[in-house]
């Protein structure tokens, strides 16, 4: 079975952004090099976890004795991308599993994403697509810090949390449910 690997080495742009209103947003990881643009859908939780793991990996590199790589402790402001997603946003696939690694030969973080695997409802066997796909993106450490910071901002830009119950509040209103301490 052929495998299509969408590779972005030193991309011009790598961002996580959303389409839709808070509460009904779809998250996308989008990479662009020149005219090559690829968008993959992922969950809010995957986005948050990716940002967290990037920072953890960079912090580990900073703390490693004899580290020969210059890893910034903070995101370089000039690298933080505040623009929306490039248009059109055409979902290539929905991310199932993501991986994060470090390539010391290029001093880059490597982000890998593969599609979610669907299962046949009757047999419970995985449905194998005709063409398997993967996304592989390599970014330098400064870009990685900036990517993680933007991602945290995008994730946090959702619905505000209710001060009473902590659940997300919709613009139309919010029902906390029982307030007698049973919740």
Topology:
Blueprint: E1 3-9, E2 13-19, E3 26-33, E4 36-42, H1 44-63, E5 91-103, E6 108-115, E7 118-119, E8 126-127, E9 132-140, H2 141-156
Parallel strand pairs: 1-9, 4-5
Antiparallel strand pairs: 2-3, 3-4, 5-6, 6-9, 7-8
InterPro entries: DUF3090
Protein name: DUF3090 domain-containing protein
Pfam family, one: DUF3090
Describe this structure in words.
This protein is α+β, with helices and mostly antiparallel strands and 183 residues long. It has two helices and nine strands. It has one domain (3-156): Secreted effector protein pipB2 fold (2-Layer Sandwich). It has helices spanning 44-63, 141-156; strands at 3-9, 13-19, 26-33, 36-42, 91-103, 108-115, 118-119, 126-127, 132-140. The strands form two sheets. A seven-stranded mixed sheet has the order 1-9-6-5-4-3-2. The longest helix has 20 residues, at 44-63. The termini are far apart. The mean pLDDT is 88. It holds the Pfam family DUF3090. This is DUF3090 domain-containing protein.
């Amino acid at each position: 079975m052929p495998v299509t690997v969408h590779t972005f080495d030193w991309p011009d742009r790598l961002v996580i952004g959303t389409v839709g209103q808070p509460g009904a947003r779809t998250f996308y990881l989008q990479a662009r090099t020149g005219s090559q643009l690829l968008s993959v859908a992922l969950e809010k939780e995957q986005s948050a976890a990716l940002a967290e793991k990037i920072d953890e990996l960079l912090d580990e590199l900073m703390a490693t004795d004899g580290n020969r790589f210059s890893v910034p402790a903070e995101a370089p402001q000039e690298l933080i991308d505040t623009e929306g997603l490039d248009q059109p946003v055409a979902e290539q696939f929905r991310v199932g599993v993501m991986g994060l690694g470090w390539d010391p030969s290029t001093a880059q973080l490597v982000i890998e994403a593969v599609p979610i695997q669907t299962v046949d409802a009757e047999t419970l066997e995985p449905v194998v697509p005709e063409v398997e796909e993967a996304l592989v993106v390599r970014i330098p450490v400064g870009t990685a810090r900036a990517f993680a910071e933007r991602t945290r901002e995008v994730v946090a830009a959702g619905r505000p949390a209710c001060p009473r119950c902590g659940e997300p509040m919709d613009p139309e209103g919010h029902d906390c449910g029982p307030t007698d301490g049973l919740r």
